[in-house]
Specification:
With 635 residues, this protein is mainly beta. It is 5% helix and 56% strand. The strands form 6 sheets. The protein has a 22-stranded antiparallel barrel. Strands 3-8-9-6-7 form a 5-stranded mixed sheet. The protein starts with 5 loop residues before the first helix and ends with a strand.
Amino acid sequence: MKVFAGRLRSAMLLAMFLPWGAASSVAAGPVETDPVVVTATRIEEKVSEQASSVSVVTREEIELDGAVLVGDALQGLPGVDVQRKGSPGSMENIKIRGGLASHTLVLIDGFPVNSPAIDGAYDVSTLPVGRFDRIEVVRGPQSALYGSNAMSGVVNFLPPRPEGPARFGVGAAAGSFSTLQWNGFAAGGAGRGGYHLGVGGVTSEGIHPNDDTSIVSFLGGGDVPVGEKNRLHALVLSTDGEKGVPIDFGTPHDINHRSTRRGLLVGGRWETRISSALTVTASGSRFDEYYHDRDPADPGEASPYVYDDVLKTVKTDVGIMARIATGERSVTFAGFEFTKNRATDTLQSNFGDTYTAGTLIDRSVFLQEEWRSGKGAGVSAGLRVDRDSEAGTVVSPRVAAFHDVPGLGARLRAAAGRGFRTPTISETSDPFLGNPALSPEFTWSYEVGADIALAGGEAAVSMTWFFLDFRDLIQYDDTVPGPVGFGQLSNIGKSFSRGMELGGTWQLTRIVGLSGTYTYSDTWNSTYGQRIRGVPTQRGSASILLTPTTAFTGRVDWRLESDQLDVPPNGGDPRRPGYARVDLHARFLWRTGSREAPQVALTGKIQNLLNRDYEERKGYPAPGINFLIGAELSI
């Protein structure tokens, strides 16, 4: 199997032999009681006014966590699994409710960034949480709105809104493993439009030889009104990462495997308010990504596999959407999208050189209706038709409803829908495993849930039952010869994932708040006759939030997972044992005067306080006890 080279080859191995991942976990701190979200319906609505299962990570939570990368900020959300292969900077994907990472659509400010190559996932390992203002997570298939990849959910990273007086800031943090983090920002929104600019970086030596990480990023954007009825919104995101790879397939202690990854996203929206009832929005984005993976021979290696792999991808997406509001009860919107994906992969190795290139084009139309029959009740129904240049036509319906129960402080909700993922350029044209006849993957999903307010609003409980039925999954098929005689990728996979997500919060006193969650996932992969790999059956967390003063906030998190099946990179027992971990977080905000005056924030966190030996993925040890202490000045 050494013919599978570089990241493309490793990812193909994951797609074939680790066909699943996505556990659930739950929330790690305070959340807004009723935040406004845009991802669930493409329009701004309060969580209490739509039927989707949604979580929101606020800026306050990100700051309290001391999160460096986005994976740190997503730890603990219901139904969301973010498992890192070792130290920060290592491969890290987002999985939801038993789906693959490629079944989660990742958006940056609403612009898609999933890779058109490999297995179609987006690796978040080089995406600093930096100046993102909030993160919205919508669970369940959303292909009726967003098309391919939204099979099990959508994650949208949103920058701050440019508003208020101009502010500037700088910050730095240092900690274990020679970790150094730095950042700076400028933002303002007074007068004609607004802007936000942020730059930052992180370096760390990691926990093994050749485990170092270096990441630099820039996030900028703004809004400009044009006349009285038009508004232009723009975004630029640049990331640049360099990483040592100490553990890979066939080499448990690699001293010279290196990877470089760069990404550039440029996007814009033009919104025109034609009347009080009709708004038209045109949008466009381009995401370029460069990945260079090289692994020279290690000293003393008996049968070295030497390769140098360069993967370049370009995702271009344009669309137009009309929103029609007829009174307070109905909002209808319809749109058209055009997506062009291109990828080239150049591999040089001691087993031979290959070059792969391809282009995929998707055209789609969608229609969505948001109907509110009255206060506390509504229905959402949508339909999308995608026409892919290789995979053909796909129809994706979805319907959801919610209803508040008078007098009980409870809301009931239910949803059903279909999701899909079209094959990537790598899956259809890889010289070793590719199959140009591949069809899209599909899932049908059903869920019911309830949200209940207790103790006069001081406590809340949420519960959701879900079932996802995955069909036509792209997996390795050794019953056919394939391009080079030892099999190929085929639509042979079938799996299901069902379970329960529970969460609760209780503001016990003015100073002490409690939160806890539990997720049960019953999964089965029919192709392999076993549980879905990468998904623990049980996962939970408990948190204590302390706010003794308005300036100080602290939190203690206890997180645990049961065992799971996995794919060790160098063979052996596939069972990854369960684990428990305790983390501490603290933040002190010192204001020198009014809110507009300079202020200093001091932050600190200790992860894995009890110094437990554990792995999030089998064969990739996680860091022991570690700390990060920092400060940020804002003026």
